[in-house]
């Protein structure tokens, strides 16, 4: 599957609230694999700077050094021979394809309203505010990724499997992914 070059076996990507973290947890338990969460790296950096995610995304748009350091850290982890098997990040599939890391690249597709409900359930807050916030984050991230890397989150070409997750349970999504992992 990965030819022994890198330990990364799969990337999991999707917008905030798409279920990537839940899927990663299921895969970790099923295969006893380790993971790294690019969003956690991003959120931890925002917290260290005392900023909201939207404000931190704005900083990243203004100061490319911050954003590029976070992405370089993630790519470095992906290229490690003793790194985690699962990489969870919105750009992980793009990076894996660009760096020729032979792994499965998954995108979880979920509409904004369902994602907002999930984020609200996880983090609290008013649903309309959460929806506005995730729309803003996606717009700012899209602008950054276009500006720095000429990557669009709408470009699904790097992914080996795209799953519409609007109305299916996490276990069913995991089954589809496990089936895909076992193909070759």
Give me some keywords for this one.
single chain, 184 residues, alpha/beta, Rossmann fold, 5-stranded parallel β-sheet, 8 helices, 11% strand, globular
Please explain how this structure is put together.
The mean pLDDT is 90. The protein has a five-stranded parallel beta sheet with strand order 2-3-1-4-5, sandwiched between helices. It has one domain (10-182): 3-Layer(aba) Sandwich (Rossmann fold), CATH 3.40.50.300. Helix 1 packs across helix 8. With 184 residues, the protein is of the alpha/beta class. It has helices at residues 20-31, 38-48, 53-62, 64-78, 92-98, 112-123, 127-149, 170-182, and strands at residues 10-14, 35-37, 86-88, 104-109, 161-164.
Helix percentage range: 55-70%
Could you tell me the number of beta strands? 5
CATH superfamily caption? P-loop containing nucleotide triphosphate hydrolases
Report the uncertain regions: none
Query: How would you classify the quaternary structure?
Result: single chain
Query: How would you sum up the global shape?
Result: globular
Provide the β-strand percentage band: 5-15%
The count of helical stretches stands at 8
Over the alpha carbons, how many angstroms does the gyration radius reach?
A: 16 Å
Q: Give the CATH level 1 class.
A: Alpha Beta
Which architecture name does CATH use? Answer: 3-Layer(aba) Sandwich
CATH topology: Rossmann fold
Q: Write the H/E string, N to C.
A: EHEHHHEHEHHEH
Terminal CA distance: 7 Å
Across the major sheet, the strand order is: 2-3-1-4-5
Query: Domains counted in the coordinates: how many?
Result: 1
Structural class: alpha/beta
Largest sheet: 5 strands, parallel
The average pLDDT score comes to 90
């Amino acid at each position: 599957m990965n030819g022994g070059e890198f330990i990364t076996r799969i990337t999991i990507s999707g917008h905030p609230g798409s279920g990537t973290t839940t899927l990663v947890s299921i895969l970790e338990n099923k295969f006893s694999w380790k993971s790294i969460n690019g969003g956690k790296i991003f959120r931890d950096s925002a917290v260290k700077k005392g900023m909201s995610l939207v404000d931190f995304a704005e900083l990243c748009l203004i100061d490319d050094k911050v954003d590029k350091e976070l992405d370089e850290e993630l790519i470095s982890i992906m290229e490690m021979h003793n790194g985690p098997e699962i990489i969870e990040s919105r750009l992980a599939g793009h990076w894996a394809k660009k760096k020729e890391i032979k792994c499965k690249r998954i995108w979880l597709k979920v509409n904004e309203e369902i994602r907002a409900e999930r984020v609200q359930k996880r983090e609290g807050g008013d649903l309309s505010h959460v929806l506005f916030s995730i729309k803003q984050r996606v717009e700012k991230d899209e602008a950054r990724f276009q500006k720095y890397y000429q990557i669009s989150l709408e470009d699904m070409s790097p992914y080996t499997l795209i799953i519409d997750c609007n109305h299916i349970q996490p276990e069913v999504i995991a089954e589809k992914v496990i089936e895909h992992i076992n193909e070759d």
